[in-house]
Amino acid sequence: MLELDAINAGYGRAQILRDVSLTVAPGEILCLLGRNGAGKTTTMKAIMGLLPLMSGAVRFKGEPISDLPAHRIPGLGIGYVPQGRRLFGELTVAQNLEIGLMVRRAGRDTLEDVLGLFPRLRERMQQRADTLSGGEQQMLAMARALCLEPELLLMDEPTEGLQPSMIEAIRQVVVLMRDRGTGILLVEQRVDAVLSIADRVAFIENGRNVDTLDASALRADHSLIERHLGV
């Protein structure tokens, strides 16, 4: 579904990613794991067209998307929940969701399905996004991405700073989307969260993906994590 073929990217003259190659299959959760500054968020931005490639290619369902403008990427069926959420704070919950629906012209059935996953948002449809709690804002960011009816979902540290009940609610939705056949690329710092939901884990170090392992192997042998993260 998603293929990164030896991509190189950075900011100005500063190269961050070096020959990163990854794949995400339908109905799979691939977690990117690495220290701060390793290149995880940069990888997400490169996929979404927010950062031009120096070389290499990004393919979605076999088609190259590296040269597409960033505003075209979501319309292909790629949802993105960025770090920091990036909501339209002055708009209501309903208006933020409507923006998601407009991208692929999804209708009322899609909205009802999404609100079924996040019932708390249904109670706050006319509330401004910037007045929601941190956990509710994260739910809204996820819900907006799901309004695209994505075949691929990118999520950058969705549980950062949240209380355990919110983390569990988000985890359940991520697993449900995987079970529905959505491919998921997840950046997560919490090792316990990664091991609870990942199918595979790709380790990134100094802008390179140095290893990709089945999560079952990591659950069985934590020394493999220590080898890459030193934790």
TrEMBL record:
Question: Which top-rank group of organisms is this from?
Answer: Bacteria
For this chain's UniProt record, which GO biological process terms are given?
Answer: L-amino acid transport
Q: What is this protein called?
A: Branched-chain amino acid transport system ATP-binding protein
A Pfam family hit: ABC_tran
Keywords in alphabetical order: Amino-acid transport, ATP-binding, Nucleotide-binding, Transport
Please give the InterPro entries that the UniProt record associates with this protein. Answer: AAA+_ATPase (IPR003593), ABC_transporter-like_ATP-bd (IPR003439), ABC_transporter-like_CS (IPR017871), BCAA_Transport_ATP-bd_LivF (IPR052156), P-loop_NTPase (IPR027417)
The UniProt GO MF terms for this protein read: ATP binding; ATP hydrolysis activity; branched-chain amino acid transmembrane transporter activity
Which positions fall inside the ABC transporter domain? 2-231
- Similarity section: Belongs to the ABC transporter superfamily.
